[in-house]
Amino acid sequence: MNGSRWSSLTCGLSVPRQNGKNALLEVRELFGMVGRGEKFLHTAHEVKTARKAFKRLQHFFGTSPNDPGAKYPELNALVSEVRNVNGQEAVILKNGGSVELVARSKNSGRGFTVDVLVMDEAQEMTDDDLEALMPTTSSAPLGNPQWIFTGTPPGPRANGDVFTRTRLEALEGKSKRLAWHEWSCEGSIDLDSHEAWRAANPALGSRLQFEVIEGERARFSDDGFARERLGMWAGTSSQAVIDGESWAAVADPASMAIENLALAIDVSPDRSVASVALAGLRADGLWHIELDEHRAGVGWIAPWIVARCERNKIRAVVVDAMSAAGTLIDDLAKAKVKVTTTDSRAMAAACGQVFDGVMENRLRHTDQPQVNVSLSTARQRPLGDAWAWNRKTATSDITPIVACTLALWGAQNSSVKKPTRKTGASSERRAVVM
Questions:
Q1: CB atoms < 10 A from the CB of 420, how many?
Q2: What angle do CA 96, 98, 102 make, to 5 degrees?
Q3: Which domains does the chain have, with CATH numbers?
Q4: Cα–Cα distance measured from residue 293 to residue 400, given in angstroms and rounded to the nearest whole number
Q5: CB 73: neighbour CB atoms within 10 A?
Q6: 100, burial (CB in 10 Å: exposed 0-12, middle 13-18, buried 19+)
Q7: What is the CB neighbour count within 10 angstroms for residue 222?
Q8: What are the residues whose beta carbons fall under 8 Å from the beta carbon of 312, sequence distance 6 or more?
């Protein structure tokens, strides 16, 4: 505690499975309910997990007030109500303290006002979930709220952006009121090392047995064992849309497009930086993307595009009309450059083209650091049944990968508008290394 407030508004715990994190949550909830009269909302990704947490609390408080079979009569004497209705489980004490348990959804926070928000299984927590839940503590009854995230490193199909972002914030020291605890291995390690197993699993030798972990090691994939048993995070790219190995497999620093050349522009929301990318078809029939220019501000873009169109056979200049780059459409029109604009459907198709191109080995990129970094930090946002790049959850500038995505769409799409300025009879295309 710091005066009358918790020193940490946000608390995070990442630990491999079956190491007792639920017991730590129980200690925190028991202390808060009994000692401080705090109200808790305990959430989990699945109903069965929330129900299991409720059953553990019943072990301490009993199944009802004045429960003759209560294991701890002194705690049962504090109980005002126990709700057993599935989906509405709660233990409410006479001092005002309580724990209510729910499975997370877009509306799961409606109707609750609490002091402490517990988010178990945080590796499966979306921004929609978080935004539905956070307001439950806005008017915390005791005026001293706290948010607790617990889980394991997110897997490749988990929506773990919230948990990942919280961890990054802690590691970068961006918040003075954030506590992060983690048991994990990092770097290049021997997955068969018993020392590594001990370092990442505080319960090894008590709850966890070496023989069981040996069985997991034999049956899990290397990535699965590293994540689930050694608590290893894949850096900032743990939830990357395209994994680093697949992206590296289609890198070609000497790659060059010679046909179907298209340019695309993307601008950061604060307009501090912008990217222009080029895509096209190579001589061998593979598709190519590269970052052509990346600079601060936006004033340079229109004249730069004009110059490129004058010297190259550019079939399209693409801009997402709903993005910050949309304001450049008029500037380019004044410069007599006709722009092809995209909508949400086209953006979803463009993202799919990049993903499929990489996974099906039909695309090459020039291994530029700016593009690599932007891809590693870019995340997905749902777009109907498809997805698009999500700026909101990005941890750095993603204009390079967004521009590359739009450029590839422009190179492949048959309905683009050709820029109206004359293009040269021959191309000056050259490899660009940023």
A1: 11
A2: 150
A3: 10-182 (3.40.50.300), 244-412 (3.30.420.240)
A4: 9
A5: 12
A6: buried
A7: 9
A8: 261, 423, 424, 427, 428, 429
Joined together, the tokens standing for residue 71 give 């294991």
Q: β-strand 273-281 against 79-83: which pairing, if any? A: unpaired
Q: Which backbone phi and psi does 150 adopt, to 5 degrees?
A: -135, 145
Nearest residue to 31 (alpha-carbon basis) of 89, 77, 95, 84: 95
Q: What is the amino acid identity at position 327?
A: T
* Structure-token pair, residue 343: 């909508």
Which helix (H) or strand (E) element contains residue 363?
A: strand 363-365
First CA to last CA across the chain, in angstroms? 49
pLDDT tens across the length of the chain (434 residues)? 555 889 999 999 999 999 999 999 999 999 999 999 999 999 999 888 899 999 999 999 999 999 999 999 999 999 999 998 877 899 999 999 999 999 998 777 778 999 999 999 999 998 888 999 999 999 999 999 999 999 999 987 777 889 998 998 898 887 889 999 999 998 778 889 999 999 999 999 898 999 999 999 999 988 889 999 999 986 433 456 888 889 999 999 999 999 999 999 999 999 999 999 999 999 999 999 999 999 999 999 999 999 999 989 999 999 999 999 999 999 999 999 999 999 999 999 999 999 999 999 999 999 999 999 899 888 888 787 788 998 765 557 899 999 999 999 999 998 898 886 454 444 444 444 33
Quick one: 248 exposed, middle or buried, by C-beta within 10 A (0-12, 13-18, 19+)? exposed
Answer yes or no: pTM beyond 0.85.
no
Which of 279, 271, 327 is closest to 302 using CA atoms? 327
Residue 408 structure tokens: 């590839």
Closest CA to 319 of 293, 345, 347, 297: 347
CB 91 within 8 A of CB 32: no
**Residue 357 has which token pair?**
């191109």
Q: Are strands 386-390 and 259-267 parallel, antiparallel or unpaired?
A: unpaired
CA distance 385 to 343: 15
